[in-house]
Every structure is written in C-alpha cells, then in structure tokens.
Amino acid sequence: MTTPSSEHTDLPAAWPHGVPRDVEIPDEPLTALLDRAVRDHADRVAVDFLGRATTYRQLADLVDRGARVLHELGVGAGDRVALVMPNCTAHVVAFWATLRLGAVVVEHNPTYTAEELAHQLADSGATVALVWEQAVPRVLEAKDRTDLRHVVAVDLSADLPRTSRWALKLPVAKARETRAAMRGPVPADVPHWDRLVRAAVPYLVPTRPSSGDVALLQYTGGTTGTPKAAVLTHRNLVANSLQGTTWTQAAPGTEVVYAVLPFFHAFGLTLCLVYSVRIAATIVVLPSFDPERVLAAQRRRPGTFLPAVPPMLERLAVAAEKAGADLTSFRYSISGAMALPRATAERWERVTGGIVAEGYGMTETSPVALGNPLSKDRRPGSLGLPFPSTRVRIVDQDDPTRDVAPGEQGELLISGPQVFQGYWKRPEETAHQLLEGGWLRTGDVVRMEDDGMIVLLDRMKEMIVTGGFKVYPSQVEDHLRGMPGVRDVAVVGEPAGDMGEHVVAAVVLDDDARGVDLASVREWCETRLARYALPRRLVVLKDLPRSQVGKVLRRVVRDEL
C-alpha cells in the first residue's frame, strides 16, 4: 500500500491558528467529564429547560438518584438502557445515570412506529426503557418481541418550571394544546421516572467504567437501509469531545449551548450533551426545534454556540429578521448533516455577526471528523480539515487499498480515536466498513484542495450512473437551488434499461413560481452541467421527506417516485 500524501505531519495551509495537530486522549470514562464540571462549576446552570434551571450540583444529585432507580430495576454494568424521549432534563439525567452504573445508553427516535421501535429494542437487547408518555403505547406494543423487563414513563411537563406546570391545568385552549403536545395516556401499572427519582436515595457506590467499555449504541439514520447500531466506547466519546473543545478553543464555564438538535441523533448528543458538559456549558434544552421558542429562550438566556443543520439556521435567521430579535450573542455555529448553502451562511452571519462553519461526520465517528476553521478562513461548501488526531485518505472507489493522486476524487477514509468499534451484532458489515489499520470507509466521494481542505462531491450509494457517466446528485441540486422559483430540490436516479438510470429532479416551488417546467429546468442546468447530467424528468412536490434533523432523504424520494 502506498503512503498517503494526506498523512504528512506538516500542518495544512488552512489549519486554524492555535489548534494542535494532535491531542492526547485521557484514559478515563465519560462520567469523568460530569465529575469535573460539578467539582469546578457546581453552581453554574447546567440545564435550562423551557425556563427551569438546574445547576451542575443539582444535576449531579439527580443523576445519583436516577442511578439508584436504574440499579433497583436491575441495571448493572454492560446492560442496555433504552432512552425513547425528546430533549428534556430527564433525558440528560437518564443519559448520565446510565453511564454512572457502567451500563450502555441506547438512543431511540421517540416518533418511530411500534415496528421500528420493536426492531431496535430487540436488536440492542435493552432490559429497561425510559419512554416519553406519548411513545409508551408503542413501546408496550413492541415489548413482547424484546428483552424489556421494565418500561418507565417520562412526563415532559415534570421538567417545566412550577408556574408552567400549573398553567397547563388551566381550562383554556392554549393550555390544552400544550398539554396534549407534551403528555400522553399511560397505563396505571407503568411507573413514572420523575416520581421514582424524587423518592430515590442517591446511589453513591463508587463505579468507574473502563475507557474501553461500551458507552453508547447509536442507531444510524437508515438512509441507506435498515438502521443498525454503531458501537461507541467511552474513549470514542471522550476523544470526540476533547477534539471539539480543542477545535473551538472554548473556555470552561463560559458558553451557553442551544440544544435544538435531538439527543437521539449523534450530532446532537455529542455536541449538545457530551461536549457541552466537558466545557461546563449551560445547555438550553428544547424538546423540538421551533423558531419562536428559540427566540423566547434567547431573550431569557442568550446563547453563544448553536450546533444546527442548515434548515434550522435559515428558519431561525428569517424569524429573527421578521421579529427584530437579537441573535448577536451567538459567536459561532457549527453546521452539519448536509451541505450548507452559501446564502444560508451569509444570512446567518449577517443576522448574528458571528461565524458559521461547516463540519463533517458520521455516527461511526462519534460523530465529528472534519471541520472548517471557526474564523474568517472558513469556506462555505467545504467539509473542512481533519480534526486533531484524525487522519484521512482518499482512495479509489472500487479499490480502497489504492490511494488516488493528489487533487483527484475518491472515497474518503477516516482514522482516529473517535472511530467506532463496529456495528452491534453485525460482524460482516463491520468487516466491510472497517478496513485493516482501523480505516473507516465513509462511502462519500471527495476531493482534497491544495490547502488541505476537503470538498464533498456526493455519496457513492446515491451516485447516478447514466449511459456510463457518473452524475453526482448534489452538484445538480446545488445548481438548481439557484433557479428562480425553486425553493428546494432532490435529485435521484430512476431505472432506464440499457442506459442504467435517468436523472430525475423532484422540486418544491415557491408559492409565486411561474413557468418552472422540464424545459426551463434543462435550460437552466445547461449553463453549468454536462448534457448527460440534465434532468430527464421533473416532479413537483409539496415538500421533501426529511430525517428528524432536516436532512433530505433521497432514498425515500426515489422510492416514492
């Protein structure tokens, strides 16, 4: 195997000032991060959930009580505990309480169907599930097909300030609407988490998981097939939180991080929960993304850092402009999960006066692997540079043992302390994804620029092959987004016999769009794209299917068409 040119020890030309190329990963469990935050910043607000503040001292007490509850439910080291709930204080407590016992957190999307939950719960072998009230009926429906011994209900309203809880009881439409959104019917024999925690004696038995122990089973989004669980150790998550702290150069005890990304997604869990505790930040927790709710929280507790996906940044910036709201406390934001449009980046930076930098990662990399500098050197449209202690290779798409020449496109491989251990109970898929030497195949086609910046071209599995030519959907989409009247677009391939596939553009139009048809779309695309990449069919949709974090699901679009 040739020595990859991208593995040199010299810093890339675009490397951010003051950031070391490598960091030493401490041999400690994830819970050490919370222990230090409590020791050094006990009276700092750790969690703000819709106005109810919990200090780090109070959070530690709740975690110890939560650990006692789980212990009495039979949870021990290595056991899996399923968390099926939106962002809330209880979610934060349950996450750390599970790790406190040396057990394994298994995150689930609380909006999943009973079938989807049954698959994941059975796959993980979880014995206890802490479940949002609205999801309890679906988990109970799935329970007989799993190893679950206990289902505990989580009442979101229990985490609200006392006055807000009281207001939910008022016989008015607004209170009924809010109550219906937060709560749900629960059978009488299902215990409630908040009541158990209140009554519990703190669990003070010393436990210290090994850094090599499994901390988290994080299910992938399933955009390329059936969701599978990535196995992440304490060391993986400790490493990624340290890499993030090194990259952002955040001072402990100074940041206010807005948790608008769901904790059950790798991006939200690491940036908003693990990294934030490492730097003893105040975490402003929101159960779902709603621009008006974010602006209300901003008036109460101004944020400094917002991890988000591009649609969130766009909607929040637009809402702030309309309301005349002040977002200038946000010094920086990290955008991920999908390409950041230049127009969105410019709008966000105009409204906040801060910086938005694109990052790149996967569930399998805990999740952040590359990032743009948090400075004027950031480059919209680029994935950025490898994080500290992270190495990359760009290899032939058909032969991952062969590195491509500098400047050529190929599949991105990643190596580093944040790379996962494999897929839970899936040795064959693990062997395909993890190559010799710990190199992770990403399935993403990229190119490295002269200054070390890496540019994403597309996903290998979503690439369209038409008449022997390769078409990258994101390149067609990027061009079409600039067409007047086109609000959003997803480009997919459809079977075309001997031709392989035809390019199909599924578009969402502006309300006042006129004259957008296949002919005009092809004419617009001819200015920038090769003829074989021009859409052969145009489909107008009211909206595009998206994941929980707003990423367009091309697979779903293709299946629907």
TrEMBL record:
A Pfam family the protein falls into: AMP-binding
InterPro entries, per the entry: AMP-bd_C, AMP-bd_C_sf, AMP-binding_CS, AMP-dep_synth/lig_dom, ANL_N_sf, ATP-dep_AMP-bd_enzyme
Annotated AMP-dependent synthetase/ligase domain residues: 35-424
Domain of life: Bacteria
Protein's name according to its UniProt entry: AMP-binding protein
AMP-binding enzyme C-terminal domain sequence ranges: 476-551
Membrane-spanning residues: none
PANTHER family in alphabetical order: LONG-CHAIN-FATTY-ACID--COA LIGASE (PTHR43767), NONRIBOSOMAL PEPTIDE SYNTHASE PES1 (EUROFUNG)-RELATED (PTHR43767:SF1)
